[in-house]
Amino acid sequence: MTSNSITMIYVDMDGVIANFNKRYVDKFGLTPEETRRKNNFSENFKKFIDDREFANLELMPDAQLLFSFLNSRGDIPKEILSSTAREDSHAAISAQKHEWLKKHNINYKENFVPGKRLKAQYATPTSILIDDTIDVIDAWNKAGGIGILHKNAVSTLAILSMYV
């Protein structure tokens, strides 16, 4: 597949360009996985939203490297595709993520879905999703898209450069 074949690159936010885990650990002293095991993730997540933390996340350390590469491919549209977790938090998290993108001068079109499972609806054979969640990438690939499991910008760019 050549760059002429790719019609869209979707970029996830949390874990790819926005450092959700760092802010979560700073705020609660545990990772999201650790709080899930202790059964208090829902309570913490509600507080995270209520305190508008999604608007104040740090950029991932290598986000600028990813953006430099993406922006150098000006002929391929890029959009954000990010989950707001669920329907009841959709409006609040969407507003906070919109604010975060504006604060960081990221002007990609925003697509916020109320659940990561809904990302696969955007998949096409000529679209790429960069996401850090394995089940999202698996569902994307199964739906016919090209999924890149993001671990860091260097490994993502190595894979992405094969397509664009």
Topology:
Elements: E1 8-11, H1 20-28, H2 32-37, H3 41-50, H4 63-72, E2 78-83, H5 90-103, E3 109-113, E4 127-131, H6 134-142, E5 146-149, H7 153-163
Parallel strand pairs: 1-2, 1-4, 2-3, 4-5
Q: Cα distance, first to last residue?
A: 8 Å
Content-based structural category: alpha/beta
The largest sheet is: 5 strands, parallel
Envelope shape: globular
Structural features, described:
- A 5-stranded parallel sheet has the order 3-2-1-4-5, sandwiched between helices.
- The protein contains 7 helices and 5 strands.
- The chain is globular and about 45 Å long.
- The longest helix has 14 residues, at about 90-105.
- The protein starts with 7 loop residues before the first strand and ends with a helix.
- The mean pLDDT is about 95.
- With about 160 residues, it is an alpha/beta fold.
- It is about 40% helix and about 15% strand.
Quick recap:
By secondary structure, the protein is of the alpha/beta class. It has 7 helices and 5 strands; from the N terminus they run βααααβαββαβα. The protein is globular and about 45 Å long.
